[in-house]
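lol forgot to send this yesterday, sorry. struct tokens for the thing we talked abt
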């Protein structure tokens, strides 16, 4: 469908979700993602270790005028760095994962994203490479999974289609009541922990577990770390809770102290 009203925006208040492409392979697909994003009023694109050099002429051609998105796109070496400033992260996947996480439809995710934006919280959505999707280690960073209820016998989407599907639900959620009845905002003295703060907690905990020998079995270490991270990500920790947990770890490591008289 053709036609553009450049005065129109995405509607609603608060920060927009960031679209994060993890290891995208083709410049053309990045361009089609940019086009899909701008169709829905989204402009912040992050690229994690793209296969082709950046900037990319093929991406610009495929974007069909969505140059704003490409011009502002940021490059990152890893997923952890790309989500460091985000309070909520969603992972898109069509495959079953051996992880316990909420699985949301794009429509439900759009409502949640709008509610989080209304509270001023930064959010991001992870999309994997065209051939294989996201790695399990990338999915572990997400609080929830977005999965579209498509034909189970054929649920394959190209990257641009997948982004458009989720971004469209974000767009139309502006007209809906995004806050569930009875939902309460997070306390005024704290906020959701960012990706960087969670990474700091993970590094602190894993370093001490290495030191005490808990992670000594080399072949089991990756899955044990992934399981631990999933526990804390699923909990939806606040910044204050992260600080408390890091204090707990430090206290346990330092050992018991004698009471003063």
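and heres what i got for the seq, position by position
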């Amino acid at each position: 469908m053709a036609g553009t009203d450049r005065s129109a925006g995405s509607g609603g208040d608060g920060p927009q979700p960031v679209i994060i492409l993890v290891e995208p392979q083709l410049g053309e697909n990045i361009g089609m993602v940019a086009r899909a994003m701008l169709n829905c009023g989204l402009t912040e694109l992050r690229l994690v270790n793209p296969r082709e050099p950046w900037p990319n002429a093929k991406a610009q051609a495929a974007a069909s005028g969505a140059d704003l998105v490409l011009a502002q796109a940021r490059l990152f070496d890893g997923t952890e760095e790309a989500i460091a400033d985000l309070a909520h992260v969603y992972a898109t996947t069509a495959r079953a994962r051996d992880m316990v996480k909420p699985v949301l439809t794009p429509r439900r995710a759009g409502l949640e994203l709008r509610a989080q934006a209304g509270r001023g919280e930064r959010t991001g959505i992870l999309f994997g490479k065209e051939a294989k999707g996201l790695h399990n280690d990338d999915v572990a960073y997400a609080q929830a999974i977005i999965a579209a209820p498509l034909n189970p016998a054929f649920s394959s989407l190209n990257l641009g289609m997948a982004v458009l599907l989720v971004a469209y639900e974000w767009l139309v959620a502006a007209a809906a009541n995004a806050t569930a009845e009875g939902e309460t905002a997070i306390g005024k003295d704290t906020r959701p922990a960012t990706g960087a703060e969670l990474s700091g907690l993970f590094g602190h905990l894993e370093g001490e577990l290495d030191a005490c020998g808990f992670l000594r079995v080399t072949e089991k270490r990756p899955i044990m770390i992934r399981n631990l991270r999933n526990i804390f990500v699923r909990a939806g920790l606040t910044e204050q809770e992260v600080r408390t947990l890091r204090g707990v770890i430090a206290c346990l490591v330092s050992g018991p102290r004698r009471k003063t008289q």
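Residues 177-184 have pLDDT under 50 and may be disordered. anyway ping me if u want another try
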